[in-house]
Amino acid sequence: GEEGYYIDKKIGTASWTTKYRTLSANTTSFLDDVNLFEEVYYRIKAFVSTTTTNSIESSIVPTFLAPSNLTLQSLDQNKIKMTWRDNSEGEVGFHIDKKIGGTDWIINYDTVDSNTTSYIDNITEPCGTFYYRVNAYSGTFTSANSNEAQINILLDLVGSVNTPGIAQDITTSGWYAYLPDYYNGLHIIYFGNPEHPEILHTMNDFEDRVLSADVEDNFLYVTSHSGSTTPGVITSVDITNPLNPQISGSSLTSGIPYDIEVVGDFAYIADGDNGLTIFFISNSTPDFITNVSTGGHAQSIYVDGINAYIAQGLDGIAIFDISDPYNPTLSSTYVTTGAKDVFVQNNYAFIANSEDGLLILDVSNTASPTFAAEVVTDGFVTGVHTDNSYAYISDSEIGLITIDISSIINPFILGYYEMFTEPTSLTHFCSYSLVIDNEGMKIVQVSP
């Protein structure tokens, strides 16, 4: 065997120091003092008398050990406390990096002094998913990053209620939610105590498949379908007393009434392959006015009083001028990859565009809508609702996503509430998003 080992050493571009150390036979490790951030090279060879083997060589840049065990704690809705373990010696301080939702990392978001192991961040956003990491530094030299940690501010489940069917739609009036549950009727849910919503009443007075609902004043308008080739039905329900709803009247629609929007004296229905159907609803029984083809499969509708915006899946968006409800006229269409839902605010249409995320169109000129922006979620967006500077979307593969739309041309994901229950739609009331999924209804707080 060998008599020992010779170790040669070189610092940076300097010359090799041969036989820097001599180690005894069978030695397999060696400890050396070095300067931080100075690349050092070593080579080692075995020897017997004056005979040596070939050398093996390696190099290293000594640096700080990375901080570890980074954890986050929400002190309140406006403060996040970070704590970590300091594993290094000689650092000047620590860099803190931060990321919000789907945005890029903010490198060196803040710095703290050496030996510090905690930090409190002040939060100005109403909700969101916040990510942090820490590294030690001295001058321009840094350690590796700590583990990444994340925390939600709000965006937490407050309450839920399970329903026996498959929730199709949700609308609210005050603290009452009305939920069409497909084969299991329509549920009236009180959520005045959001932590404990409860079903107060279930109506089974409709066709076998209850599809959608909307409220105007003290009346609820419900669409349903028998599942056969016959048209669907629109039913008006007096909900002056939500505990004792009373049916006022019913009329046939033109097709399968997937969605309904009520504005003033008129109800507008996305009637499947039969397009747009309009009813006059001031009488106890809805009166059919007209039906027009939309050129596609109408499945969701938003009405602003002058225009009707109709989501048609692979057939995109159709916009109708309904200033005269008795004579709706097509203003324009816009091709999308899979429009599932649409919501309009301040001359912008927000479209749940399936696997392509959230699409935003400028509809200030309804005759010629133009692309404004999009937000990719890497999931499958099914529903959308906006409230001032924020958009809330349901994504069947991710859950509830909050998007900051204060800059329409630069929207960004603010945070996520992860769900594994395939959410299909949602609405917004006060500080809450009410999301429907394959279990029923969930209440998520999205603002203080």
Summarize this structure briefly:
With 448 residues, this protein is mainly beta. The protein is 0% helix and 55% strand.
In terms of topology, how is this protein built?
Layout lengths: L3 E8 L5 E8 L15 E9 L2 E2 L3 E5 L7 E9 L2 E7 L7 E8 L5 E8 L4 E5 L5 E11 L2 E2 L6 E5 L2 E7 L8 E3 L2 E5 L5 E5 L7 E6 L5 E8 L2 E7 L7 E6 L7 E7 L6 E5 L2 E5 L5 E5 L6 E6 L7 E4 L3 E5 L5 E5 L7 E6 L6 E5 L2 E5 L5 E5 L7 E6 L5 E7 L2 E6 L3 E6 L7 E7 L6 E5 L2 E5 L3 E6 L3
Antiparallel strand pairs: 1-2, 1-3, 3-4, 3-5, 6-7, 7-10, 8-9, 8-11, 11-12, 11-13, 14-41, 15-16, 16-17, 17-18, 19-20, 20-21, 21-22, 23-24, 24-25, 25-26, 27-28, 28-29, 29-30, 31-32, 32-33, 33-34, 35-36, 36-37, 37-38, 39-40, 40-41
